[in-house]
Specification:
Order of helices and strands of chain A: HHHHHHHHHHHHHHH
Distance between the termini of chain A: 26 Å
Number of helices of chain A: 15
Radius of gyration of chain A: 26 Å
Oligomer: heterodimer
Shape of chain A: globular
Shape of chain B: globular
Helix content of chain A: over 70%
Strand order of the largest sheet of chain B: 7-2-1-8-9-10
Number of strands of chain B: 10
Largest sheet of chain B: 6 strands, antiparallel
Number of helices of chain B: 3
Structural class of chain B: alpha+beta
Chain lengths: ~375, ~160
């Protein structure tokens, strides 16, 4: 809804007076500028982007004609310039711009490694390049005030690990079946724990660690649920022990920092899933599919509640939609009849409407927090 | 803020030492005498890293019968001998024979750490249709530790190095 319509609605509801509405409109006009100013700004940004893209295209078109020494010196100068600019802006107290230059330095360092490899025809595993860049990206993450700078070393480390696994026959053997999913869940849990531990010492790094940790755990849960629905993959013991160890550490942390109810809920959920896993291992296809469905719904619902509590409405809606889609898939998997699927969906929809009504009645108990992660 | 500036200055010095030292060492390794190493398994690629050719040194095949159950990852040193203008493996290095080539045992084969050559984009299409023949070899230098540093790839007598 546009601001004018919102102000009119607020005036009708008696939330603001006519003078206050006029003052708000004048303030927003002054702050955001008129639509004409926005168009000029957008055109200017588009023009600037076009010029930069054009220069990059010209360089790329003549890349083969540029002598190796010129390429190395130019990129080396850009690497150094990004750090000098970050240092200068830091002196002036402009930390946002300084952090952006540090982020650019992290990307340019990777480009520099790739260029040296190309010019000197270096072989070997590309994971080494990412590992080196991850190490170079750690100091900026330590001094940076934005989580973007912590994203780089985490991303580089994960890519290096993935490339190393792809290259190593021993690691591939170790991660057969759902071993890779368990490793991802274990690493995700470790990142979540690290984020919790660093929350006071380095808030920006903590946010990045939690973001990547949650993404890895969510990906592993969703992947497990779908794979489990189709087949029961062989799972290597070492990775199961690793993932379970990290899971237990998270439960211990919950017990230390949160209410006992949260701990009990988590332990019960884990016990249910473990029991279901053991039970379905000895049963037929349908129980296994149903357990996979429950695992998916439990994971997605947990993340939906977490997203609601952190004030992320779009993420809450997306996860709720994922649960709804999974319900449809379950009916198609189990019933295999359009008429029965329709009946099942009507019943499920009625249950969901009831849950939504109960949730609405209890809204005061689970009001979203004002502070995002 | 002073700590932040100090860390950035330290990072700049690290970059200069790291990249400068790396490039200087590669340039130094390239400055020694050039040799020819025959190549087999010619495979043009065009991936994100630019146009490049995957190849395998004939030395890897020649080393196979000389191996005596060394463990995975073991360092292997092999003596080289010139035959018809190119260097070939003769035996496992147990004395101080020269020249020699060094690699590591990976997956039952000796990996010498050189397996790709980046080619000029303008001749990439032409290279893709060339098939490896007897006159296919890399021009390289071999440093004091037996590591190979590739300078040029010659396919059927024609250089595919960047112009």
């Amino acid at each position: 809804m546009r601001l004018g319509k919102k102000l009119a609605a607020w005036r009708e509801a008696g939330l603001v007076t006519a003078d206050q509405a006029a003052a708000i409109a004048a303030f927003e006009e002054k702050r955001g500028g008129s639509p004409g100013v926005w168009i000029v700004g957008a055109l200017g940004a588009l023009g600037g982007l076009a010029v930069v893209a054009g220069i990059i295209s010209l360089i790329a078109a003549n890349w083969s004609s540029i002598p190796a020494a010129v390429k190395l010196l130019s990129l080396g100068a850009l690497v150094a310039a990004s750090l000098l600019a970050a240092r200068q802006l830091s002196s002036e107290g402009r930390t946002l711009a300084s952090d952006l230059f540090l982020f650019a330095h992290g990307l340019l360092a990777l480009a520099m490694v790739a260029l040296v490899g190309q010019i000197y025809h270096l072989g070997g595993g590309p994971w080494r390049a990412f590992a080196l860049c991850a190490a170079l990206a750690v100091p900026p993450a330590v001094i940076g005030q934005r989580s973007l700078l912590s994203d780089l070393p985490i991303a580089y480390s994960l890519v290096a690990l993935a490339l190393f696994i792809a290259k190593s026959p021993a690691m591939r053997e170790e991660l057969r079946g759902f071993g890779l999913g368990l490793l991802a869940a274990g690493i995700g849990g470790t990142l979540l724990l690290s984020g919790q531990l660093l929350s006071r010492a380095h808030a920006a790094a903590s946010v990045a660690l939690r973001r990547w940790g949650a993404a890895l755990v969510a990906a592993a849960c969703i992947g497990a649920a779908f794979i489990w629905s189709l087949r029961a993959p062989e799972t290597p013991g070492h990775m199961a022990v690793f993932a379970a160890g990290v899971g237990l550490a998270i439960v211990a942390l919950l017990a230390w920092t949160r209410r006992v109810a949260a701990l009990l809920g988590t332990v019960l959920a884990l016990a249910f899933l473990l029991g279901a896993a053991i039970w379905t291992g000895e049963r037929g296809d349908v129980p296994r599919r149903f357990t996979g469905f429950l695992l998916f719904c439990a994971a997605a619902s947990s993340f939906a509640v977490a997203a609601a509590q952190s004030g992320r409405r779009w993420l809450t809606n997306l996860l709720t939609l994922a649960v709804a889609a999974r319900i449809v898939v379950l009916f198609v998997e189990l019933i295999r009849s359009l008429a029965m699927t329709g009946v099942g969906l009507v019943l499920t929809g009625a249950v969901f409407c009831g849950v939504a009504w109960a949730w609405w009645r209890l809204h005061g108990l689970i009001a979203p927090s004002r502070e995002g992660p | 803020m002073n700590r932040r500036r100090t860390v950035i200055a330290g990072l700049l010095a690290t970059d200069l030492l790291l990249f400068g030292g790396w490039i200087a060492s590669l340039e130094h390794a390239r400055s020694s005498a050039r040799v020819k190493l025959p190549v087999e398994g010619f495979d043009p690629r065009d991936l994100l890293r630019g146009h490049f050719v995957r190849f395998q040194l004939v030395a890897a095949g020649e080393a196979g019968p000389l191996l005596r159950g060394e463990p995975e990852g073991a360092r292997i040193e092999l003596c080289l001998e010139e035959r018809r203008g190119m260097l070939h493996v003769t035996r496992v290095r147990t004395d101080d024979c020269k020249p020699f080539i060094a690699g590591a045992l990976r997956g039952g084969r000796v990996d010498f750490g050189v397996d790709r050559f980046f080619v000029d984009e303008r001749i990439a299409g032409e290279v893709a249709f060339v098939r490896a023949g007897p006159e296919t070899y890399v021009v390289a230098t071999i440093d004091g530790g037996g590591a190979v540093h590739v300078i040029d790839l010659v396919v059927d007598g024609k250089s595919v190095a960047r112009k």
